[in-house]
Specification:
Largest sheet: 7 strands, mixed
CATH topology: Rossmann fold
Strand content: 25-35%
Order of helices and strands: EHEEEHEHEEH
CATH architecture: 3-Layer(aba) Sandwich
Number of strands: 7
Number of helices: 4
Structural class: alpha/beta
Length: 148
């Protein structure tokens, strides 16, 4: 099984989400039956490893007044990552922009499950039933970010 985590709540200087993802990567290192991929926002596009987990950074502009945090943009790059990795499960931890960018990108790879832990109901539903139910302005913003 291949699990892919996506979040925009990452800061290289630490924090709860980063601590959680690093601990998860460390734990999954002992699980040869699970491949783990992490996609994070960052200052520039890059790749690295945390234990056995592959970590991709999508480059984006800094979030004002939030040192170490970057906007989650790069829809084309995320789509390319999802097509390359072909995850069985996408675990999304973001109620903001990453949610829309991920919905756009996930349509290309059609994962078996898309877990959105930040939805009002903390949904874990078949990906084929996940649809963007957004206003026209949000769709335009997601399309603009896809080209970033």
């Amino acid at each position: 099984m291949k699990l892919l985590d996506i979040t925009e709540y990452h800061s290289p200087v630490g924090g709860g989400v980063t601590t959680y993802l690093r601990a998860k990567a460390r734990w999954l290192e002992r699980r040869p039956d699970v491949e783990h991929v992490i996609v994070l926002s960052g200052a520039r596009a890059a790749e690295e490893r945390w234990h056995r987990s592959r970590v991709y950074y999508l480059g984006g502009p800094p979030v004002p007044a939030s040192p170490g945090f970057y906007f989650f943009l790069g829809g084309r790059r995320l789509r390319a990552i999802l097509l390359r990795e072909r995850p069985d499960v996408i675990e999304l931890g973001s109620p903001f922009f990453a949610r829309w960018v991920t919905a756009y990108a996930a349509a290309a790879c059609r994962p078996a499950r898309l877990a959105d832990w930040t939805a009002a109901d903390a949904s874990f539903v078949p990906a084929r039933s996940c649809r963007i139910a957004a206003s026209r302005s949000v769709r335009r913003a997601a399309a603009a970010a896809a080209g970033y």
